[in-house]
Amino acid sequence: MMLTALWARVQGWLAVAGAVLAALGAAWLAGRRSATQAAAARQAEQIAAQAQERASVEMDVARVPDPAAELRRDWAR
User: Fold this and answer.
1) Are 30 and 24 in contact (CB under 8 A)?
2) DSSP of 18-54, one letter per residue?
């Protein structure tokens, strides 16, 4: 009889603890998902910036008719 009453009381606390753990797990998963999405967005921005910089450098290089001659002209001992 005493065990039944004790089990009923413990069962209620276990249900509360389970609900708290489930809420914490859901919050952790949501945070992990949003962090992954933020990292992917940052990476996409970095890739776009790198592509733009690469295109700019390639255009600058393409404007020079003979890069080796320019280097020889500026070279000094």
Assistant:
1) no
2) HHHHHHHHHHHHHHHHHHHHHHHHHHHHHHHHHHHHH
d(CA 36, CA 54): 27
Measured CA to CA, the distance from residue 10 to residue 63 in angstroms comes to 79
Torsion angle of the four alpha carbons 25, 28, 29, 30, in this order, in degrees rounded to the nearest 10: 120
> Region 52-69: what's the mean pLDDT?
87
pLDDT of 1 > 80? The answer is: no
Cα–Cα dist 23/64, whole Å: 62
* pTM metric for this prediction: 0.56
Among all chains, which residue has been given the structure tokens 């733009």?
52
What pLDDT sits at residue 30?
96
